[in-house]
Write a structure and sequence with these properties.
This protein folds into 2 domains: about 230 residues, UDP-n-acetylglucosamine1-carboxyvinyl-transferase, Chain, CATH 3.65.10.10; about 220 residues, Enolpyruvate transferase domain (UDP-n-acetylglucosamine1-carboxyvinyl-transferase, Chain), CATH 3.65.10.10. The N and C termini lie close together (about 5 Å). Helix content is about 30%, strand content about 25%. Helix 11 packs parallel to helix 13 and helix 12 packs parallel to helix 13. By secondary structure, it is an alpha/beta fold. The strands form 7 sheets. Strands 24-25-1-26 form a 4-stranded mixed β-sheet. The protein has a 4-stranded mixed β-sheet with strand order 2-17-19-18. The chain has 14 helices and 26 strands.
């Protein structure tokens, strides 16, 4: 277990940073490359541990995974050519890995076991398991207290999937909560099912799956409002049912969730010029930018372009720390900024007035209870904050120096990084404990923030 020791910022931040590859797109690039039978070059994949778990998982399922310079090369097995894993698949801390594998493996004729670390072993899986069971999948798990999961209550890893004796059946799914992970699992199951599968969400969620699978020739249609995905594999399967990536390469753009911490740091400390290069600006991922704009921040979006079928741009912060104001955040915007709520709360602590975040129930079942851990992180610096059932309230006081804080990140990488950013505005050195999981998403976080002029170091 390590900690960050963070010194108060003494000068504006400055520099240009290449943002690590987007983790969500990276998971999908690796998994979908498994479903092809031709080599796929994945360029720009982030070095985080979560993507590494997915890379090892597809290797256990029959893919050959290697390197060609800076690219990861995957020689896939095809949708019908996967092999039974010789051992249980370790998903580490990655909820995306385990949930997407549930959908992928639900239609396979072999048995597979999925497990993870202590944190992942507490995360609820019923919302992905139940709709897959409705399609005929065989999935079992454990109850939250360690007993076999029954008909009531939730299900947590380890999970056992299959073997499936007959093909899955297409189902019309109406999701109660918008979730790109659940949607993707059901789409992957639908590719292997008899009949039509539809997935309808109450609001928008990340559409990286739809973009990439459509480019690979999957029998997939998206409604005009983006909330319903239809998979009809009948004619496609009769014609051979193979997925193929034109050009054989996937370019993974920069992770907007990683760039959020650097943008926030530049806003609360001030910046000569901070440039986050090559960031994915997919509209389903820009809730953080929209929230900051509502608070009065100006982030320039420069050099817009397309990378790997995704919109990409350079995000630029210039000038002294702006005067920010508290806002109310909820609805679709919070869905589009769900991973950035902890760092938005840190920014809100340096804004004038009250910021309220609602409609964020999903934060309760992330790597930690992120509503509780975000509030605890803020209070460690003397910020007035309260938890609500579906969100939190932050009372900003930008004219009052923050107390040096000691933050317990609860093994949650986003709490650790948000606490580090807020510590830059404290009146003395702060300590952020239990930061090992920062490597799951942003292993170069310390080096990058230091390159911009922040003073922090790792400690035992």
């Amino acid at each position: 277990m390590t900690a960050f020791i963070v010194q108060p910022a003494r000068r504006p931040l400055s520099g240009q940073i290449d943002i690590p590859g987007d983790k969500s797109i990276g998971h999908r690039a690796l998994l979908f490359a498994l479903l092809t039978t031709r080599p796929v070059w994945i360029r720009g994949l982030g070095g985080g541990a979560d993507n590494g778990r997915t890379a090892r998982a597809i290797g256990q399922l029959g893919a050959r995974v290697g390197r060609d310079g800076d690219a990861i090369v995957v020689e896939g097995a095809g949708l019908g050519g996967m092999q039974a894993p010789a051992a249980a698949i370790d998903c580490g801390n990655s909820g995306t890995t385990i949930r997407l594998l549930c959908g992928l493996l639900a239609g396979q004729p072999f048995r597979a076991e999925l497990f993870g670390d202590e944190s992942l072993s507490r995360r609820p899986m019923r919302r992905v398991i139940e709709p897959l069971r409705a399609m005929g999948a065989r999935i079992t798990g454990r109850g939250p207290e360690g007993a076999d999961a029954g008909a009531a209550g939730d299900v947590v890893p380890p999970l056992v999937i299959g073997p499936l004796a007959e093909r899955l059946v297409g189902v019309d799914h109406q999701l109660a909560i918008a979730s790109a992970q659940v949607k993707t699992a059901l789409v992957l199951a639908g590719l292997q099912a008899d009949g039509v599968t539809r997935v309808t969400e109450p609001g928008p969620s990340r559409d990286h799956t739809e973009r990439l699978l459509a480019a690979m020739g999957a029998p997939l249609q998206v409604s005009a409002d983006g909330r319903t995905v239809t998979i009809d594999p009948g004619a496609w399967r009769a014609a051979g049912g193979e997925l193929e990536l034109p050009g054989g390469a996937i370019d993974v753009p920069g992770d907007p969730s990683s760039s959020a911490f650097l943008i926030a740091a530049a806003l609360v400390v001030g910046a000569d010029t901070v440039v986050c290069r090559g960031v994915c600006t997919n509209p389903t991922r820009t809730g953080f930018l929209d929230a900051l704009a509502a608070m009065g921040a100006t982030i320039a979006v420069e050099s817009p372009r397309q990378v790997g079928g995704e919109p990409v741009a350079d995000l630029v912060v210039r000038g002294a720390a702006p005067t920010l104001r508290g806002v109310e955040l909820g609805g679709d915007l919070v869905v589009r900024a769900i991973d950035e709520v902890p760092i938005l709360a840190a920014v809100a602590a340096r804004a004038h007035g009250t910021t309220v975040v609602r409609d964020a129930h999903e934060l309760r079942v992330k790597e930690s209870d992120r509503i509780a851990t975000t509030v605890a992180m803020l209070r460690a610096f003397g910020v007035e904050a309260t938890a609500q059932p579906d969100g939190l309230t932050v009372i900003g006081a930008p004219d009052r120096p923050l107390a040096p804080g000691r933050v317990d990140s609860a093994s949650d990488h986003r709490i650790a990084m948000a606490g580090t950013v807020l510590a830059l505005t404290a009146s003395g050195p702060s300590r952020i404990d239990d930061v090992g999981n920062v490597a799951t998403s942003f292993p170069s976080f310390v080096a990058v923030l230091t390159a911009l002029g922040a003073e922090l170091a790792e400690a035992p």
